[in-house]
Amino acid sequence: MYQLFFFLLPIPLPLLSLQIFINNEWHESTSGKKFPTYNPSTLEKICDIEEGDKPDVDNAVEAAKAAFQRGSPWRQMDAPSRGRLLHKLADLLERDRVTLATLETMDTGKPFLQAYFIDLEGCIKTLRYYAGWADKIQGRTIPVDENFVCFTRHEPMGVCGAITPWNFPLLMLVWKMAPALCCGNTLVIKPAEQTPLTSLYIGSLIKEVGFPPGVVNIVPGYGPTAGAAISTHDSIDKIAFTGSTKVGKLIKEAASKSNLKRVTLELGGKNPCIVCADADLDLAVECAHQGVFFNQGQCCTAASRVFVEEQIYPEFVKRSVEFAKKRLVGDPFDARTEQGPQIDQKQFDKILELIESGKKEGAKLECGGLAIEDRGLFIKPTVFSEVTDNMRIAKEEIFGPVQPIMKFKSIEEVIRRANSTEYGLTAAVFTKNLDRALTLASALQSGTNICDSPNAGGKMY
Ligand code: ADP
């Protein structure tokens, strides 16, 4: 009775072309090669896709350059019309929301309800947000000497490359695409090789919406080939990348060795979640749980280092274990499922290897710690207590359903420990004391700090 979504399949495949999208047309790969994409829940192949490589990226860049030429339909389009196209794209995502969420679940293994309510919701809102910005981006006038007029104009960069990861394939695509289009750029996109389906579906919607040919081009393929062709391309003016820190370094290097294109990177995280003794314990336990286990633990922002003040440590661990044991792992199309499979064998093996390292290095395994037998890439929600900062599970990005819980005594100590990481992506703090919340928010060296302090009126960002 819980298999609510089986009737959604099969997908209306005519809408999903599995080819390379250039100039609003579908193409076979220049090399003639294809690559497979798999359903990580069943390990079955979903389909083959045309495999883009450097020649295909070159064709996509030519199309994007032509679409960006002075006098082209895209360059002549006024800003409100660009905004209207983005709104129309959001309308089509709303129309095809079930199909897109189904494809995302098939390709990533994430629970359908999360794909539908979180990923798709985020995509639609992002498109509408940037649609609104399109005609509100203004320059400034600057007072200088009497005989001069000085003003700034915001101009599009030109051809933008976008390389996306597999954990939120559609959302990451939209995060990159919407601002670039809002400002009048053109795009060459390479989706992650594990999860190309929703990106290709977007190609068909781009055409339906009526974006001029060449404004959005999508080249599925592998990182060292198609991805590297983008990062080293001399005619790409800017690149946005989300993925591993290792590849982020390669992208910067490639940008500086080619045309010094601008680079925006969103890379790994080993994010502290600090729970003070005065926190609302129910709230902190649940948020820390969701913070690390959401999306099978495959989030760069995962709360993957939980620091708990010593007075409440045993109780926090006990309740966290209860939560983890109750977490339902299984078929992502089952409405009850909270956790699906990991994305692929490589990630699955890496997570299990890190779990083994935690056991060997002396952390206390409270629950989980194993794969679910006979079920491919599913891993039991795992909680470790008695974790110390020198252990690999406290230092390395696990990207899986593993919660390492550490103990702290004082605020100065936890600030020092939380900041001693090569990553500084996000941090979270739970306390009812406003002074502590503000002290921690300013002391934690990360891009986004989230404090929950009811005395401060709820959430602060
Ligand atoms: P993960 O290890 O989690 O798969 P990656 O950083 O390898 O993360 O992948 C993120 C994205 O970067 C994917 O689209 C992938 O194809 C791409 N990629 C991988 N290697 C390179 C590379 N050398 N140059 C450009 N893109 C790459």
TrEMBL record:
Residues 26-451 form the Aldehyde dehydrogenase domain. The active site is at residue 266. Keywords: Oxidoreductase, Signal. One of its GO terms (molecular function) is aldehyde dehydrogenase [NAD(P)+] activity. It comes from the Eukaryota. Pfam families: Aldedh (PF00171). The keyword Transmembrane does not apply. Residues 1-17 form the signal peptide. PROSITE patterns: ALDEHYDE_DEHYDR_CYS, ALDEHYDE_DEHYDR_GLU. This is Aldehyde dehydrogenase 1 family member A3. It comes from Zosterops lateralis melanops.
